[in-house]
Amino acid sequence: MTQRLAANLGWMVLCVLMTGCALRPAPIVIYEDRLDSIWLKFDPEAGTGHDHPASLTPEQMALVLRGVRVKHRDIVGGFGLFADQQGAPAFSASETTRVAPYLSQALKKASPKDMVTFYLTTVDPTLGKLVTSGGLFLRDGRLYFILANARTSPSSVQYENTYEIDTRDEPLLPVARFKFTVGFTPDSARIPNAQLRGTRGYERYIDESKLLVIDLKQLVEPVKSSTSPVPPSATPAR
Q1: Greater model confidence, 163 or 209
Q2: Potential cystine with 74: which of 20, 80, 142, 205 (Cβ 3.0-4.6 Å)?
Q3: Which of 170 and 30 is assigned the larger pLDDT?
């Protein structure tokens, strides 16, 4: 009996060693349908913890999504010229409207050890299924935004992938990592990665070409100022 118990325990230990990731907490579903998923996932790189739960309104989140840009690399040259300096919006207007409230809700429910992840699917008449995925979290007043895939075909054949893969369970996994880099507008709200590299709590996660660090105060405060009502003392006399 003792030998059988020891054998069972040995088998359990072996299974744990082989499938350690399975011991992570199951993701918390914020929203999910046939095409899209917004999850809270345990972040093993969180270190001392992110600043969660966090309050970011859907309007502020929409401002972030509208600022994320995709700069496509020259495929022939590998890491060559970009098509343009600003890049193209990473999220369409309909995606922004649809997703911003769920991302805002997710941050409010997140624990310090969670990352908010997203997996969005669109169907192009010519290209078929396209995936936009990544994750985000807050720390020290900064929003760390990872864009792993941007309207990327799961069957992209580029360098490392020669078959279609499903990344819904791994939204930070890039299907074609050399296809694009990310940018942000306004540029004044983006903190250069080099400025944070090596500081406490900074992690690269995928690679720095897919990671944005956004100063929320620089992004949100100018908008507040431009939309604030005119003070009574400044109202013109009739």
Answers
A1: 209
A2: 80
A3: 30
pTM, full prediction: 0.78
Sheet containing 88-89: give its strands across. 88-89, 68-72, 180-184
Domain count for the chain, please give it: 1
pLDDT at 36 over 50: yes
Residue 8 falls inside a structural domain: no
Q: Per the domain annotation, does 230 fall within a domain? A: no
Tokens of 102: 């769920």
CB 174 within 8 A of CB 182: no
For residue 216, the Cα-to-chain-centroid distance in whole angstroms is: 15
Does the residue 59 lie in any domain? yes
Residue 163: both structure tokens together:
């078959």
Read off the pLDDT of residues 174-192 as tens digits, 9 standing for 90 and up. 887 788 999 999 999 999 9
- Using a 10 angstrom Cβ sphere, with 0-12 exposed, 13-18 middle and 19 or more buried, the burial of residue 139 is buried
Handedness of CA 42, 43, 46, 52 (dihedral sign): negative
Domain presence at residue 16: no
CA distance 34 to 38: 12
